[in-house]
Amino acid sequence: MDDRRSARLAQLATQNKMPRVGVIGAGISGLRSAQVLLQKGFHVTILEARDRIGGWVYQETLNGHSVDMGANWIHGMDKNPIGRLATEINTVLCKDEPLYVVFDTHGRLIPDDVAEQCGEFVEALLDEAEEYSNRNQADISPSRTVRDFMLEEIAKSQLSAESRVICEQMRLKFLCLQDGHSGEDAFVASTYKGIVQSLALEASEAIRLNQEVVKITTSPRTDDTEAVTVETKAGLVEAFDEVIMTCPIAEQGCIQPNYDANTCRPASFLASQWLNDPFAYGSYSSVRVAQNNAAEDFRMLRTGGGKGKLGHNLMGHGRGIWFAGEHTIDPRDIGTTTGAWTSGDRAAKHILLAYGLKPNISNQ
């Protein structure tokens, strides 16, 4: 417990009040943060720049069908909070191998048996690379990529263009950091809509849409005042005891088109525009070749710049700013809705602990 927060809590108790927490962003991490805090009686306001909730998760309609434009898988169902929630609300999940067709870089259809054989081979080789990274992380050069390892192992084989691009941008040294949840992967056949709506149920009255945050001001904490002031583009100014930031980290490239001009015309098409989204810029986190110490980079993102008195978050301890979002979580869950959920859960619980309060035991 933090002494100043304890004093603040006692002062508010004399007025039958609880601390006020602002959550920037109504994605999965923001909604989970709000859910945890609301369950303990905190006053929560969620400021969302878009005209909808969900962040990376939303749907469009194509030919009468609802299609996820962001997350649409749950990776590793074992002990996965998103997987548990999806099951509890009867989300339709597809855990079987999906039907697919594979083309080469020249647009030629690859026979099913060849595609399956190559897919299994590459998947097994990636598993081998992951095991190698775990065993030898301390000795692997930071400049060595997954592709380097794979090409050494299959000198006479050729990766697909897509696999080549992905592997060239991932470091072998830190592949072990991204070993995610175990268990089956599940395609969310009924879309993520129900999952987001379930997370938002308790927080519905706390959500403020179309509120783009443009300025956050912090000051040294005193016993009797809110420490953080938030201003939005619409002119809203609010003071909070704590603020949880869930803004995404922007560093993902874009996929270049590669098709023949004479390709048959599609009946319809739908493309995401995350790269041009002003509140995301196409980003979710991954380990890239430019990083020299990915483990330390992720630690800094998780802690907000240092350990602080509580061993959690320096800015959160001193000035009331806490960080959430898939990029602030343990590397095994980066880039996933599980990581977003877990980070929001963690940030909210760290705030509760700072006030000397025990979080409720809950899976959702």
TrEMBL record:
One of the record's GO molecular function terms: chromatin binding
Domain Amine oxidase: 28-127, 170-250, 265-352
Biological process according to GO: chromatin remodeling
Superkingdom assignment: Eukaryota
One Pfam family here: Amino_oxidase
Stated name of the protein: Amine oxidase domain-containing protein
